[in-house]
Design brief:
Layout (H helix, E strand, L loop, with lengths): L11 H13 L10 H14 L3 H8 L3 H16 L5 H8 L4 E10 L9 E2 L4 E10 L5 E4 L3 E2 L4 H8 L1 H8 L2 E3 L11 E2 L12 H13 L1 H11 L25
Helix pairs in contact: 1-2, 2-4, 3-4, 5-7
């Protein structure tokens, strides 16, 4: 195995933030890599999902050391991850939020329940909630790709929490019948045409939801989801020690 110069399409501000988290959590133990390099190692793993062997070769460290750095950094970052209630409560005063469900592709082809009829491939179901401008507020734990979006929102408690907070949330047609404060496009009845005002309402609704769809598209590009385990998993937790296959 040989190493080569490469780039990761993440902002320098994010690298600086992760580095500061590591610096703030520093103890007296000695580390071979500086905090900024440990931050790079973790972000490369999360963004591109390089194996531990690849990380070890690229940063000139051992495989076990690479696992330890990634595991420790994710653990420190997880301390700052808000719960669904905290994320929506802090955003409540700003009006409404945007909800989108997606299936992130995975290579676990033998996993039961991971085949999604929606996208006709293996994957995991993710629920994404953003602010009006597309800023990510909360990303759900992963469910099998066959899970319907409405079922996923109920399992995560999204509908109940939004109802309790009286927070309106804009979603697409896949959430028809979700209830609560979820607002979806107006559905056309069979063999009828929607009135112009309803068509106009749906057009405005789609335009308002554009930011969350853009955010969802960026999340799906992260290769970390390709190796999601077959069971229900919170992908925000620390990775297992064994390297990906």
């Amino acid at each position: 195995m040989f190493s080569y110069p490469a780039a990761c399409d993440l902002d320098e501000d994010l690298l600086e933030l992760v580095t500061m988290v590591l610096v703030a959590a520093e103890d007296d133990r000695s580390c071979r890599l500086r905090p900024v390099d440990r931050a790079r190692c973790t972000l490369v793993h999360l963004c591109k999902h390089d194996t531990l062997e690849q990380l070890a070769a690229g940063f000139a460290i051992g495989t076990a050391t690479a696992w330890r750095y990634v595991n420790h950094t994710i653990g420190q970052l997880a301390r700052f991850a808000p719960s669904l209630t905290e994320a929506l409560t802090s955003h409540h005063a700003n009006g409404y939020a945007l909800l989108d469900g997606t299936v992130a592709e995975t290579d676990r082809v033998a996993a039961t329940g991971h085949f999604s009829g929606k996208v006709r491939r293996e994957g995991v179901n993710l629920q994404v909630i953003t602010a009006e401008e597309g800023r990510l507020l909360w990303l759900s734990p992963a469910l099998p790709g066959s899970t319907h979006d409405v079922k996923a929102t109920r399992e995560h408690g999204i509908i109940d929490i939004c109802t309790q907070l009286h927070l309106e949330i804009l979603a697409d047609q896949g959430y028809q019948g979700a209830g609560g404060t979820v607002i979806t496009p107006i559905k056309r009845c069979p063999q009828t045409e929607l009135p112009y005002k309803h068509k106009r309402s749906n057009t405005v609704h789609a335009a308002l939801r554009t930011p969350v769809e853009r955010t969802t598209s960026r999340i799906k590009q992260r290769r970390i989801f390709r190796h999601a385990p077959s069971a229900r998993t919170d992908l925000r937790q620390s990775p297992p020690r064994s390297s990906p296959s």
